[in-house]
Task: structure prediction
Amino acid sequence: MIKIQEKNRCCGCSACVQRCPKQCIQLKEDSEGFLYPEVDQSLCIDCGVCEKVCPFLHIDTPVQVLDVWAVKNRDESERLRSSSGGVFIALAKEVIRENGVVFGAVFDEKWEVKHIHAVTLDEVYPMMGSKYLQSRIGNVYKEAESYLKQGRKVLFTGTPCQLAGLRKYLRKDYPNLLAVDFLCHGVPSPKVWRKYLDEVTTRQGGGKNSVLSHPIGGNGPIRSIEFRSKSSGWKKFSFALPLSEASADGDKNTVLLSRIHREDPYMQIFLSDIILRPSCYACKCKNGVSHSDLTIADYWGINQLMPDFDDDKGVGLVLVNTSKGKSCFETLPLERRKSTLDEARRFNGGFKEHLRVHPKRRRFFERLDSCDDLIEWMELCVKPSLKNRLYGKLRVLYHKIRRNKR
Result:
């Protein structure tokens, strides 16, 4: 029986929930906003299936990377709509062309993130772009299994732990499954995101709880959300939030809240590792453990490694992990440059399996429910201490002196 005693031992993949033969496991949200399984012991038959499909209880031997590539989608409009090089949409178009099914993450009617399946390109497009939230998996492992058994090609995209959960749930390899994960920084709290959105729209005049309108065609203030807008370029990506604001005469105007990611409170606290799920600080599914066929990411540092390949519109990194992934990757309409794993690791923190638990994490969540001004609390928590600020200034001065001596 699944029993979570240490929260860093559960990634929330929901494989146990979907595989339970008695359907007696539910995911419940804790005080930090993360989902964990709870078993109805009155229905449990103690068959142990839930434990057998847990990717944290049964960690696989990692697969070795076969090839490393820097890539750009040849369709510039698709690349600009993507977070980096436009690899996902190229993969999805190929699968849809073959009457396949694509699984990925989209915003729901509350601007939270969930996994769904798509059988048309129109259904795929909302999956494009990074969404810095942990998506709710729901029953998509079951849906994917059904399509695989029908013989249809399935592209399943997700975090490394979600892919590891899918593999454990399926309990066998399917030749028609293409599993694609990404270099994951970690997943932040959906509860923090909800409170942040509420506060942003309230400040803008949208009113409390007005964020609950549907993303497509809703009447609420939020028109769309982009965590990785390239309006200021790929390397200085922005958090963009177009809002509808009522004027004095009742007309609605669109106000664009757009900030470079380093200046947005939510992005700052996420990238500072304060609001990550406990399991993310010691991830057990990265670097080949998920057995994904391909791993995709931003190719940070490409401007130093291959400056002639960088146009600040996004360059993707692709790790080819299996022969199946290799045969699929070779068919894609991408500009590509061969690279190495050492070069890719040099600039991308997503390879790190272990992160330091931020010293302010516990205090942040303890005050989360009671703080009247979440944005102010976020800004206070990410503000460096006086000691760190002085250390930073001394480092800048040291490097400046060294440059002047050369």
Residues 206-218 have pLDDT under 50 and may be disordered. The two ends are 65 Å apart (CA to CA).
